[in-house]
Amino acid sequence: MFGYYLDLALRSLGRNRALTALMVLAVAMGIGASMTTLTVLHVLSRDPLPGRSTLTYFPQLDPRDANGYVAGTTEPPGQVSWIDGTNLLSAKRADLQALMTGGQVAVQLDNAMLDSFYEAARYTTADFFPMFGVPFQYGRAWNAEDDEAHARVAVISAELNDKLFGGKDSTGQILQLSGAAFRIIGVLGDWHPNPQFYDLNRKSYGENEGIYVPLSTSQDVGMNQQGSVDCWGNAGSGKNPSHAAPCVWLQFWVQLDTPAKAADYKTFLVNYSAQQKALGRFQRPPNVRLRNVTQWLDYNQVVPDDVRLQTWLALGFLLVCLVNMMGLMLAKFMRRSGELGVRRALGASKRALFAQLLVESGVIGLAGGIGGLLLALLGLWLVRRQPAEYAALAHLDTAMLLATFLLAVCASLLAGLLPAWRACQIAPALQLKSG
To answer: What secondary structure does DSSP assign to 205-230, as a single string?
Structure first.
């Protein structure tokens, strides 16, 4: 029966091609605008740590004095000081924990003619890799013993490995990083978390770092630190603060495998803060937070407000397009009242006519979905030409491709409900008499 309805729909649409084209265009424009903005929203709000985001937490403490507070907020800083970070790391109260910051280093191959260049770097501790599920193409990550020994070892990204070694296994090779020799012990696999949840102070989206070295070693070598540095008291401000300075400039992440462990860890943070207040380091009562990855991204409003606004505007435009399509479809179906009356007189039920007209609406939606897909691809191409840091991520994946056609067909069926119902209410006797 569906095949019969489909044949009737194609014949009907072919009889009035101008009206059909207008309905298809209305659907295509609404779908194109909606899927462009929905795809960008989908890319920016995806889970950067699938399967781990609810187990990975960002602890926050508040060591600031009265002058370090921002009016109107009681939220603790979004980073930790060196003293607090190393204290929490040494406590080992989590299943895994990593202390880190970002920077930029000058890179040059040992005994090579290649000119040096600057590469984004991550200075971190050993648990960074297992906690975030970082895959390796070659070699391995360093371990806790390497952290304690201040080992001059490095892990590089697959992209940097392609650039320097043509994609070959480079473990054991020597790199000059900020004038010091480092031995490559690992090459990352395909790992590009977006948003870059673990350090939102540098950027939220884009390429990840190319070089990873132990945090302790980076401090020995004096590698350049990049990112937010917030100080209070007489510490002033600036990059590369001293370890004793009252400044927050490091990120600290922990993995807590159960809700009970998360609750216990928050209690530990409260007790730690109270202890530090008793020692005179903290000036205020304990003020702690423990947010997982999802909560951390929501708190920092990583998805730009203009993207959300554009999405709502595009959906509103889709609604306007569907209202226009509904009017065109109503006019088309009512003009066929004679044909529909004959079918009723020959024994077709209202349900059968209703199904026939909805199939026709669905065909219009499918055609509009194809046009909407082309417009969405054009829209995403234009997004990628924008200077925004997330622009390069604006690509249509399989899920959004299927969503394009699903949204087009469902929207068209919804728009066709009222016209189809109205057309089925006409009494066949009146049409036969007028005919």
So the answer is: SS---SEEEEHHHHHHHTPEEES--E
